[in-house]
């Protein structure tokens, strides 16, 4: 068979895998947004069947043989070679995990989730401890099956952020800690002095329907294409759906925290713009998809934080916001921007954290996961380790496990190694923003209400690139350097020194 | 392996097939209710992939071998034996259709649908003729692959109504024509005399939101379980979803035809009650599912026509309806019931037809399909044959093909042999209703606003039976006789003679 024929066979098989993944995306969206509550058991069956079919097809010897033969051909173009590389990686992982382990993993995560919900409700880590221990053991087995030659936690991180390792994260996170811990201490000292702008208007009540109208208009202003996506309400906000033409974001509304839903919508729109901006000429193939979870988070955080907490973006929209929310008439534009960036030092919860403290919540979890998988930390000692690090990094101690080590869903779903993506995203976002500013006048165009120049830069350098290049190469091509914490550190130091008059 | 082990393997495989079918149900619902319009191409890919996986798994040699071995075991109980029978039928059909034909069929139906939409818009049969010819040829090949020893049209009918044949339908439809054609002639003559109740209130405008409220309250009153289902708005009403715990019905609203959406909701609720009433102890297996399309239609039509166009059902609800729709204050209860059963003799469109003329629309289509597949009718001669039969059975001639032979979607989707199910449903419904009346006092309980006695009888004799028995046996166990047109003929003759004072 010619290379062209082999490659056509490959793309047909990969299209099928994509279609199954997209279908799982629809089942998930449906479950969270519209599914009748009595269907939860049936939905579990449907998802398990599709996940089984996906694993079966992804790990098939036929696909493996095809990838092997194509890997030996010298006449593939760059795109096709990248596509084979991505598909091979997926196949190799799937093929190495025994069917029995896949099934055990699926059933244990369902069980662990239920146990976690109850344990969190009771703020009782002891209830969660046994099943968490089992999850960690099973994750170790999984990692050993995928690559027995590497540390388990490196293998797990690699599932979300290809090529990332503990060695590298240790360095990255040490740099961030060195900047953030003293910076937060200075903010804390400054707050103790008083005299900062009042931000109590952040708790002014706004009816959900009004929040929805304003939020939707911002989502539209950011360039979200409603012909290829939806905006709905859910308990936990997410960006899901089924591929570049069906991108579905959700938000939730709390009457006394209008900024939460607004920034949440901007965050999910950042994810959505990445998905909607994929290169359609690359088809429904692995090469077209988002590079990694870290890069995905870079797109949401770039819009939510770098853009959506900046003065330029809000300047043209603020009069409209003031017209919609009467209490803002008494809030100056500068005070509004200060409120957008309010540092909340008493907060225990990662998802509610501000830009400055968020990375420390992540680093804490990273260090705990790392030590759990190296054996340096026993599952039983987790709560004590958690609380000690909270005191060390943020100066506060959680009163119970619900506000401490039971707060996140990730461990109950077996997503060990996911947390670093959030902060890698913040670091990448600062790199992208710095590079974009060199190419286009971001401040002036955002200030004129025009997101297209910035969006166009992201489309060209990130969205349309998909998975054509490894992450470091993608970032280096876009910004001139691979992963680099300097822009993020400079950005937070400058911004918070200015806002808090340090 | 023991019979128990073999059977456990079978049910696991059949669960997977059910899960794929249910997932296709969700993809379809999503497409019609919430999908962004730009996702239509991607959705086509997703559905094609899932349909391919379903066919692959359903036709697999492993499943075939398992069914063969189980078929030879003497120690299966009745339920398991019925389950093996149903699964074997599905497997045998799937296994006999070559993969290439499955793919050709899928792509031709997509193409034919687009051509049909345009042809209907232009009222130009000539545009549709070539692709319809191809569809008929391919359907013949399909039928020959499934069973070369039987007439093609019998094989096609059998897909929707197991065991039904032209020989039998010819007899059934001859009996119906013999009753309906002269009955309609008498109604027509009576209408020419005038003096019948005024029914112009049927066109009184009602806002869609009010129609929705009233409709939903009726759906609830009929026993639809909203914890295991939904009610939404769509262009074409349907009952879909994903199995007994996720039953989704839809309706549409026309301001000047409130009865259309109301009776539509009652119709779809009839389908839904059948699905929600399946026997959960039979699991997600073929033996638990609805017996046939004809039996499914019997449930929708029993509620829409036999119940929903009767005085007893409306007596307790009419004051509430009058309170909701002010113009009904001037309409007596008897006139309201007359309006529910209005015969509209000038109507060309099947989906808008009343109870009396509907079967003739179906019989016309049946005879045309039968003659197309026997070769007695050429595709090119279809419009002339259609119009001649319209004149013969209903006394009216369509002015163009859009109001004639291009009106239905079925042929463009290759659903040859489906139409008879509608009228078989009406016939079965009359049988079930007659039998239910013998067991419970339907008039008195409906008249007291209590649907449970009737619903309970249907649950026990139809819904919970699923596919345990062949259709004739199901009907005979419930009513004492297999398919029998006498109850339907007696019912329409009595009712319309009374209402029209013939």
Oligomer: homodimer
- Structural class assignment of chain A: mainly alpha
Quantity of strands of chain A, as a count:
3
Give the CATH level 1 class of the domain at 200-345 and 421-499 in chain A: Mainly Alpha
**DSSP helix count of chain A?**
21
- Predict the CATH topology of the domain at 200-345 and 421-499 in chain A: Neurolysin, domain 3
Strand-and-helix sequence of chain A, N→C?
Answer: HHHHHHHHHEEEHHHHHHHHHHHH
Main sheet summary of chain A: 3 strands, mixed
Distance between the termini of chain A: 68 Å
Q: State the helicity of chain A in percent bands.
A: 55-70%
What would you say the CATH architecture of the domain at 200-345 and 421-499 in chain A is? Orthogonal Bundle
Low-confidence stretches of chain A: none
Structural commentary:
The structure is a homodimer of 502-residue chains. With 502 residues, chain A is mostly helical. Among the domains of chain A are: 3-96; 200-345 and 421-499, Orthogonal Bundle (Neurolysin, domain 3), CATH 1.10.1370.30. The first copy, chain A, is built from 21 helices and 3 strands. In chain A, α15 (358-374) runs antiparallel to α16. The longest helix of chain A is centred in the N-terminal third of the chain and has 31 residues, at 3-33. Chains A and B meet through α1 and α2 of A and α1 and α2 of B.
């Amino acid at each position: 068979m010619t290379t062209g024929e082999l490659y056509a066979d490959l793309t047909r098989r990969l299209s099928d895998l994509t279609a199954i993944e997209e279908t799982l995306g629809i089942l998930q969206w449906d479950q969270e947004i519209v599914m009748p509550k009595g269907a939860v058991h049936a939905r579990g069956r449907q998802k398990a069947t599709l996940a089984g079919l996906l694993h079966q097809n992804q790990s098939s010897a036929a696909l493996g043989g095809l990838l092997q033969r194509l890997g030996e051909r010298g006449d593939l173009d760059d795109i096709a070679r990248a596509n084979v590389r991505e598909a091979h990686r997926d196949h190799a992982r799937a093929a190495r995990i025994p069917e029995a382990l896949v099934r055990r993993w699926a059933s244990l995560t369902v069980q662990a989730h239920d146990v976690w919900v109850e344990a969190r409700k009771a703020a009782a880590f002891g209830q969660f401890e046994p099943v968490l221990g089992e999850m960690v053991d099973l994750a170790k087995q999984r990692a050993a099956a995928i690559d027995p030659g590497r540390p388990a936690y490196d293998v797990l991180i690699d599932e979300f952020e290809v090529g990332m390792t503990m060695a590298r994260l240790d360095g990255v996170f040490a740099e961030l800690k060195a900047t953030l811990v003293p910076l937060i201490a200075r903010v804390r000292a400054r707050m103790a002095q008083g005299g900062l702008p009042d931000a109590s208007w952040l708790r002014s009540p706004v009816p959900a329907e009004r929040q929805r109208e304003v939020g939707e208009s911002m989502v539209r202003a950011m360039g979200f294409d409603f012909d290829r996506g939806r905006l709905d309400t859910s308990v936990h906000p997410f960006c899901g759906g089924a591929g570049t033409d069906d991108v579905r974001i959700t938000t939730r509304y709390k009457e006394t925290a209008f900024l939460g839903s607004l920034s949440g919508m901007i965050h999910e729109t950042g994810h959505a713009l990445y998905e909607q901006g994929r290169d359609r000429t690359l088809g429904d193939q692995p090469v077209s998809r988002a590079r990694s979870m870290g890069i995905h988070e870079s797109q949401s955080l770039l819009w939510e934080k770098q853009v959506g907490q900046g003065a330029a973006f809000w300047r043209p929209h603020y009069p409209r916001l003031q017209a919609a929310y009467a209490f803002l008439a008494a809030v100056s534009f500068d005070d509004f921007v200060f409120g957008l960036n309010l540092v909340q030092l008493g907060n225990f919860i990662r998802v509610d954290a501000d830009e400055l403290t968020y990375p420390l919540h992540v680093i804490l979890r990273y260090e705990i996961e790392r030590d759990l998988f190296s054996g340096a930390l026993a599952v039983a000692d987790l709560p004590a380790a958690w609380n000690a690090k909270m005191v060390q990094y943020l100066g506060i101690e959680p009163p119970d496990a619900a506000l401490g080590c039971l707060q996140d869903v990730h461990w109950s779903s077996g997503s060990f190694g996911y947390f670093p993506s959030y902060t890698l995203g913040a670091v990448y976002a600062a790199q992208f923003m710095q590079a974009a500013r060199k190419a286009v006048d971001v401040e002036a165009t955002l200030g004129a209400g025009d997101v297209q120049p910035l969006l166009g830069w992201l489309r060209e350098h990130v969205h349309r690139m998909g998975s054509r290049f490894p992450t470091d190469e993608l970032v280096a091509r876009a910004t001139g350097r691979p992963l680099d914490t300097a822009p993020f550190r400079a950005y937070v130091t400058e911004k918070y020194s200015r806002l808090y008059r340090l």
